[in-house]
Amino acid sequence: MALEGRFDEAAGVVRVGDDARQRYHDSRGYGYPLEGNEIALAPVEAAHLLYRGDLEAVVDDSGERLDFRAFVAREPGRKFGVRFLVYADLRSRGFYLSPASEPWVADPPEEPADFAVFPRGKGPGDGEIEYALRVIGERTDVPAGELTAGVLAVVDEESEITYFEVSRRDPSGTTGATLPDGCEADLLADRVVVWEPPVDLYESAFYGQPLEGREYDKPTLQCSLLEAAYLAERGAIALEPTAVRERGREVEGERFDRRLAVYTTLRERGVVPKTGYKFGADFRTYADVESVENLGHSELLIRVHPDDYVFEPRDLALDVRLAHGVRKTMAFALVDEAGGVDWWSLERLTP
Amino acid sequence: MALEGRFDEAAGVVRVGDDARQRYHDSRGYGYPLEGNEIALAPVEAAHLLYRGDLEAVVDDSGERLDFRAFVAREPGRKFGVRFLVYADLRSRGFYLSPASEPWVADPPEEPADFAVFPRGKGPGDGEIEYALRVIGERTDVPAGELTAGVLAVVDEESEITYFEVSRRDPSGTTGATLPDGCEADLLADRVVVWEPPVDLYESAFYGQPLEGREYDKPTLQCSLLEAAYLAERGAIALEPTAVRERGREVEGERFDRRLAVYTTLRERGVVPKTGYKFGADFRTYADVESVENLGHSELLIRVHPDDYVFEPRDLALDVRLAHGVRKTMAFALVDEAGGVDWWSLERLTP
């Protein structure tokens, strides 16, 4: 027999009595207990019970009886539509989940989240949270400063949901190589040519890209302005670092200094950054380069952004989708005014 | 025996005599004939011959002898570095190619291009052009109004080259379906719910997305604001078209009207547009939908832009790479002030 709920609009919950506590809370993880034998349901929980036919109606403050359609049309609560869709999706995948706040959960996640999702087979009372889940529509901007570790559920305009795991992730590697000293080089409009460098500069340390097919036996290396700035600063090539950096700024504006900060940090961490152009990213990175001959695949794609950047979910979907398609992980390097870098990675998640 | 050239800096060509005409022009497609037995070489052609050791040096106006390195350091001519790299790459792939202007080619391509590339096995004199090729560095912006049919070669910062075939491409399809009349629907914050529509609205015409798992036998369809605006305008759902469009603009700003113009055009052409969110695009499209049960894969990913949009090559690389990875073609819909649409497609090309 389906029960009826009472919409306490001031408190923003739906109260249900009778045997709701045993049927919906104790055995199925909905809501939280009130005095007596009532339970309080969040609007998305009440909507889900209406949706499934477990609640017949919800009566509002004026006495109007609302069925699923009418309750949904009220859009009770912030982001109701997208939160309901995610709630329903995770329920259908066999998870228990609750609003990520007291009194639904005794120990809510530290980071702001919409839902606490429990490990499969466990419920709200077991005290273990699998995912701290945040829900957004695809048109919701995400300022970089508001990124939090956890799961991000993005609901697109046709109500499909994509889940992302957002984690802090500092890249590190084992690549190290001695740099040469004062190699001859020329600064061109948008690149640098290094003439007859020691063969290890490319073969072991993976700087630049050889110019192929010269009939003379004179290895020539082309470097990006970024690589060249790094090498010039360390005296490995005989160019004025200032001149190379100036050229870099001419070509790419303020992006250049940000990318150089990230490039430098990566090299210092033993990671080899190469251009990510073909993947639409700033860098692709190799953690453990011993020789170019035995090069594995790059593991990360990195996008460099200022720390006040605002992400659009659609671009996140694109970046992560591409990375996944080429078996790499998408990472973001957020650079502050002083050149400090904050690292995040985003991966597609199937809950 | 390697020859020497003379750099005529005013004319911007390198002149070579002796048997250059027979050795470099007649048999290998470099340069164009001058009076007597001299030929004139474009700077990239001269650089290539220096590179290969066929020219020993180029003497400039002041009498200085320039080897490959010194000639390159001069950066003779606009976009010299990137044009040289593409020239060398295509030569190494077995193509003959020339600057795309007279007198190198008798009949240059109509569209502005850097090089005329000839079909494999054919040369400048055979009168057949395989590709009208334009060369840019990865940091060069491409205004939408400057897109031309042909091949675009993008040289990244580490001198790798990606080739794109740019074509005009009007989508068309065979999907047609009768629309229902006045279905009940509710306008929510960022989507629309259609209550108990005829089953064909989704099953044959592929509008919306069903809400799954309802225990009642009441099919419920969620539509995007875009689909809903289109349906409302045609009386298929009982919502005020103006209200839906207003909501669309609240959610996505001016993009909404552009996307609606493209959505409408596609439906009119018998193509079914669905959201492209998961691919970071505006739409994925199906040309021939008979029923959702027998749905094939979508063929195109479409990005919608205003006609004054400026493309960044890095984003083009990303879009095209993703499309290729999911076996679709990337297309761009450029929308003018009046809602007219110009269609382009971009595909990766291996010359």
UniProtKB/TrEMBL annotation, chains A, B:
Residues covered by the tRNA intron endonuclease N-terminal domain: 13-71, 184-240
Keywords, comma-separated and alphabetical: Lyase, tRNA processing
InterPro entries reported for this sequence: tRNA_endonuc-like_dom_sf (IPR011856), tRNA_intron_Endo_cat-like_sf (IPR036167), tRNA_intron_Endonuc_cat-like (IPR006677), tRNA_intron_Endonuc_N (IPR006678), tRNA_intron_Endonuc_N_sf (IPR036740), tRNA_splic (IPR006676), tRNA_splic_arch_long (IPR023516)
Function: Endonuclease that removes tRNA introns. Cleaves pre-tRNA at the 5'- and 3'-splice sites to release the intron. The products are an intron and two tRNA half-molecules bearing 2',3' cyclic phosphate and 5'-OH termini. Recognizes a pseudosymmetric substrate in which 2 bulged loops of 3 bases are separated by a stem of 4 bp. Endonuclease that removes tRNA introns. Cleaves pre-tRNA at the 5' and 3' splice sites to release the intron. The products are an intron and two tRNA half-molecules bearing 2',3' cyclic phosphate and 5'-OH termini. Recognizes a pseudosymmetric substrate in which 2 bulged loops of 3 bases are separated by a stem of 4 bp.
The protein's assembly and partners: Homodimer.
HAMAP family from the UniProt entry: EndA_long
The name this protein goes by in its record: tRNA-splicing endonuclease
Gene: endA
